[in-house]
Amino acid sequence: MTTPILEIRNLHARIEDREILKGVNLIIPPGEVHAVMGRNGSGKSTLSYVLAGKEDYEITEGEVLLDGENLLDMDPSERAAAGLFLAFQYPIEIPGVATMTFLKAAMNAQRKARGEGELSTPDFMRAVKTAGTDLHIDTEMLKRPLNVGFSGGEKKRAEVLQMALLQPKMCILDETDSGLDIDALQVVSKGVNALRAANRSMLVITHYQRLLNHIVPDVVHVFSDGRIVESGDKDLALQLEAKGYADFDGAAA
Amino acid sequence: MADYDDIPTLKENIDRATVDSVLALDVDKYKYGFETAIESDMAPKGLSEDTVRFISAKKNEPQWMLDWRLEAYRRWLTMTEPTWAKVHYPKLDLQDMYFYAAPKSSPAPKSLDEVDPALIAMYDKLGVPLREREILAGVERPNVAVDAVMDSVSVVTTFREELSKVGIIFCSISEAIREYPELVQKYLASVVPVSDNYYATLNSAVFTDGSFVYIPKGVRCPMELSTYFRINEKKTGQFERTLIIAEADSYVSYLEGCTAPMRDENQLHAAVVELVALENAEIKYSTVQNWYPGDKDGKGGIYNFVTKRGDCRGDNSKISWTQVETGSAITWKYPSCILRGDGSRGEFYSIAISNGYQQVDSGTKMIHLGKNTSSRIIAKGIAAGFSDNTYRGQVSAHAKAKGARNFTQCDSLLIGDKCGAHTVPYIESRNGTAVFEHEATTSKISDDQMFYCQQRGLSEEEAVALIVNGFVRDVLQHLPMEFMVETQKLISISLEGSVG
Q1: Contact residues for B301 (Cβ-Cβ < 8 A; gap 6+)
Q2: Where are the beta strands (DSSP E) in B398-457?
Q3: How far is B419 from chain A (nearest CA, A)?
Q4: pLDDT (tens digit per residue) in A75-105
Q5: Neighboring chain B residues of A107 at a CB cutoff of 8 Å
Q6: A110 Cα to chain B: minimum distance (Å)
Q7: What is the spatial distance between Cα A54 and Cα B160, in angstroms, rounded to a whole number?
């Protein structure tokens, strides 16, 4: 059997005294796109932060393997270099740092961590230009400080641009559709779909079905009260949209 | 292809070789902590009239200069150390210091060949671009002239011939006193009076060397003038004296950068820099200061008590100070502008970084005297570790300064929770037409910013360096190319160990 890109076993996590993840189990094989749906406050975003290694959470139980390696032993930058990428729901502003500068710093930091040499400027520029064109990102935007004064659409496109350049194994998209109008949603989805590949998996976190019309998942999971309570194919998302989450609230009990 | 990712705005006229040689400068964390064994010709320990006479005699100075020094010394005896700055340090025992030390084997060398090889080797280690070698090898036209100062005596002055073709004088102050006494007598202490403050008066009595620049009327200096200072002798205070005069319609850009060997005792540095800009003249003065800040427990390190002031004496003249302060245990420094000429303009761009137990009290004064004078202050303070970082600034408009304008922006960034950032602005206006604006912010690097950067693969230190470089970007852009590249590296080095 091929090693899953992501394997989560009985993951429990808390913030201060409050347990938020209460035994998450999830296996994502290479090349698959899984969606996690759930109402606000169900712990979906916490799952993404815990996987990326945000300090605020304490893992009390369970383990996570990224392509067979113990993810929870790594610090956030090591996880990134190992191939984990989180597209943030609310991308953070970095004043004074041109988007271009940030991209280069991130790519070179990951290359360094993997023992590779720095990217030459012409190679870097070529890569950025190629990836940027499909996402409608021009040189002007790349000169602006990262996420500072960006519109909702620009922020999400910049996230996908980073994903395209960093070539992760495992992409986590946290509410990527939030703050997007329909045109922007199409551009962003197209960018994400272009990154689907046999050796790359994705976890798409959302509470609206509409994103999944654009990024069609292989598997849909319903998240409620800190765990996955139901899994199915893409039709499960349509069911949820029609009936709401109420049917699943008791399922975990 | 434009390499605009690292450098916000590339200045024009920057020769590729300059960029390369600056890039080659390896700004490693205090690797400059070594001593060079060069025999010194020292004055006896302590400060007295005899010390002053000894220094003056060593310099072959004319009688008027000795008299001037002695008068300063007598004034100084009546003065006391200022205590208003937010810095704390054990009292200095001036009688336990040497006030003069000079490398013995270098009586005004005419070329590199005459210079003590140990000195050249030392500059090699420092990466000082003494590019005589390139010229000898016929590589290219240089565009940085270096007046290298080590232990108070100018050792090599390069490219003077090229400068003298257009009438520019760039030499040590000692030489200027001997060769151009009328210029020195006219301008010395005309900006910073002998009795200006305790340290400036002390400097007047015992200054040993420094640079002298004279740009004649209508001349645009064809290269950036640069001086590298270095403190090398045990317990030797450094008292440089720099005087720059820009005649009407002239322009000069001057760079000052410093490193010092590692020491386990405090070293005093009290320089005086005076700038005079006549009608329509412009002087741009840039400093990168990374003297030894003391060890991680706050022991040792340089005390830096500097008086820097520019006089926009002519109408429509302009003086611009840009400073990057990363070193010294104590920094007490307020590069200022007297805006005397109508329509004159003063600028102050500052990056002050403190880490460990460093204490920085720095800022500027913009004194508006003439009509329609304007000034701009952008100060960025970054405090980490256990350090204290104070911006202290004064903006004033006198009754005749109709239409004076000032814009001040002071931003402080805190890293960690054991450091302090303070902003102390003084604003005075004696006429109703002056418009002064003051903006100040204090922020911390947020956990979210750190997490975001780390999620993209940056280590904690790389993330801090990137965020801080972004924070100081408005000021970095005002640095000459040579310093901009070096400064970006220096910022990372200065903040090493500030997180985690």
Answers
A1: B263, B266, B267, B291, B292, B293, B294, B295, B328, B329, B330, B358
A2: 405-414, 420-429, 435-444
A3: 22
A4: 999 999 999 999 999 999 999 999 999 999 9
A5: 457
A6: 5
A7: 58
Q: What is the pTM of this model?
A: 0.79
Summarize the confidence of residues B80-95 as an average pLDDT: 83
Dihedral sign from CA coordinates of A199, A205, A206, A207:
positive
pLDDT at B5 over 80: no
Query: Smallest CA–CA separation between B425 and chain A, in Å?
Result: 25
Q: Which site among B7, B448, B453 would you substitute to test the A interface, given the most A Cβ atoms closer than 10 Å to its Cβ?
A: B453
**Confidence at residue B99, expressed as pLDDT on a 0 to 100 scale:** 76
Say if the Cβ atoms of A96 and B453 lie within 8 Å. Answer: no
Between the alpha carbon of residue A87 and those of residues A22, A76, B36, the distances in Å are 23, 14, 54
Backbone angles phi, psi at B248, to 5 degrees: -55, 140
**Contact check, Cβ <8 Å, A76/B451:** yes
The band of A242, judged by pLDDT with boundaries at 50, 70 and 90, is confident
The more confident residue out of A244 and B158 is A244
| pLDDT the model gives residue A58 | 93
The length of chain A in residues reads 253
Q: Exposed, middle or buried by CB within 10 Å (0-12, 13-18, 19+), for A230?
A: middle
Give the list of residues 6+ apart from residue B42 with CB closer than 8 angstroms, or none. Answer: B98, B100, B101, B233, B236
CB within 8 Å of chain A, chain B residues 244-283: none
- With beta carbons less than 8 A apart as the criterion, state whether B378 and B439 touch: no
Question: Look-up: residue for tokens 């640079």?
Answer: B211
CB contact under 8 A, B458 and A101: no
Percentage with pLDDT > 70 across chain B: 74
Interface test with B, best of A77, A161, A165 (most B CBs within 10 A): A77
The nearest CA of chain A is from the CA of B349 a distance in Å of 16
User: Which of chain A's residues have a Cβ under 8 Å away from the Cβ of B441?
Assistant: none
CB B154 within 8 A of CB B102: no
A47-66, pLDDT tens digit by residue? Answer: 999 999 999 899 999 999 99
Smallest Cβ distance to A94: which of B8, B455, B470?
B470
Give residue B40's pLDDT: 53
Tell me the per-residue pLDDT of A17-30, one tens digit each, with 9 for 90 and over: 899 999 999 999 99
Collect all residues of chain A within an 8 Å Cβ-Cβ radius of residue B473. 96-97
- Amino acid sitting at position B317: S
* Alpha-carbon distance B468 to nearest alpha carbon in chain A (angstroms): 9
Burial of A29 from C-beta contacts in 10 A (0-12 / 13-18 / 19+):
middle
For the residues B112-123, what does the mean pLDDT come to? 53
Q: Where are the domains of chain B?
A: 16-494
Task: Provide mean pLDDT across the span B51-78.
Answer: 91
- pLDDT score at B240: 87
Minimal Cβ distance to B455: which of A52, A97, A113? A52
Chain B CB contacts of A125 below 8 Å = 1
Cα B444 to Cα B412: distance, rounded to the nearest angstrom: 8
Which whole-number Å values give the CA distances from B273 to A86, A123, B239, B385, in the listed order? Answer: 52, 46, 10, 31
List pLDDT tens digits, range B361-404: 999 999 999 999 999 999 999 999 899 999 999 999 999 999 99
Q: Which tokens sit at B170?
A: 């760039």
Domains of chain A from N-terminus onward: 6-93+168-249 (3.40.50.300)
Residues of A in contact with B8 (CB under 8 A): 98
How far does A161 lie from chain B, in Å, by closest CA? 12
B97 vs B44: CA distance, rounded Å: 9
A77 contacts B454? CB cut-off 8 A = yes
The model's pLDDT over B133-174, given as tens digits with 9 standing for 90+, comes to 333 222 333 344 555 544 444 444 456 677 888 999 988 888
